[in-house]
Amino acid sequence: MLVLAFDTATDVATSALLDDGEVLGERASVAKTLLEDVDALLRRASARPRDIGALVVGTGPGSFTSTRIGLATARGLALALGIEGAGVSTLDALAEGSEGGLPVIDARRGEVFVPGAGAVSPEDVAAAGRLCVGDGARRYRAVLEANGGEVPPDDDARHLPRATFHARLATTFGPVEAIEPVYVRAPDAERWRG
């Protein structure tokens, strides 16, 4: 089965096309070019949109707007193609791509998203003896390393929430409209409104 996977929760959007687990292509860009990336993946594989059997979308946490772009795209594609999908946490995909490393996503406002803790100050991340990956690990490298963590070089692929890992982690497929984002905290608009 041809599976299209993508994640737009961080500053780098990733996408991948797999056929029965075999990676046919991967791309990394930005959320606003996601559909261009999907088109390029399909062309490279000599496939058409109607050949896609299922979708896997990153559910965050990450940027509220970017996460919504990914979910809205997944819902639109699923509706148009009549296919099901699965949601996979961006944190889980980062951990999978670093063989159990500690995923650290930049949450803005001087915070990071880490598994089980939500949004926390980088100083509060239990980094000692851990490989820290993700855009938050790159941004707060000095803090995490001072706390005993190890952060790969900025250009290391383990910092990307690669869509290939999303596809490999997806186990249950169902209606895409039932996939819920992982926001962790209220969007900035609600905070400013209050």
Could you explain how this protein is built, in words?
This protein has 194 residues and is of the alpha/beta class. The chain folds into two domains: 2-91 and 161-193, ATPase, nucleotide binding domain (Nucleotidyltransferase, domain 5); 99-157, no CATH class. The protein is 31% helix and 25% strand. It has seven helices and ten strands. The protein has helices at residues 34-44, 64-81, 90-97, 135-139, 141-146, 163-169, 188-193; strands spanning 2-7, 13-19, 22-29, 52-58, 84-88, 102-103, 105-108, 111-114, 118-120, 132-133. A five-stranded mixed beta sheet has the order 3-2-1-4-5, with helices on both faces. It has a three-stranded antiparallel beta sheet with strand order 7-8-9. It has a two-stranded parallel ribbon with strand order 6-10. A hairpin with a 2-residue loop joins strand 2 and strand 3. The longest helix is centred in the middle third of the chain and has 18 residues, at 64-81. It is globular, with a radius of gyration of 16 Å. The chain starts with a strand and ends with a helix.
CATH class annotation of the largest domain: Alpha Beta
Summing up helix and strand content along with how strands pair, one would put the structural category as: alpha/beta
Reported for the largest beta sheet, the result is: 5 strands, mixed
If classified by CATH, what would the architecture of the largest domain be?
Answer: 2-Layer Sandwich
At the fold tier of CATH, the topology name of the largest domain is: Nucleotidyltransferase, domain 5
Average pLDDT rating: 95
Spatial strand order of the main sheet:
3-2-1-4-5
The number of helices is 7
- Classify the helix fraction into a percent range: 25-40%
Alpha-carbon Rg, integer: 16 Å
Order of helices and strands: EEEHEHEHEEEEEHHHH
Number of domains: 2
> What would CATH call the homologous superfamily of the largest domain?
ATPase, nucleotide binding domain
Describe the oligomeric state of these chains in a short phrase.
Answer: single chain
Portion in beta strands: 15-25%
Low-confidence stretches: none
Q: How many beta-strand runs?
A: 10
C-alpha end-to-end distance: 47 Å
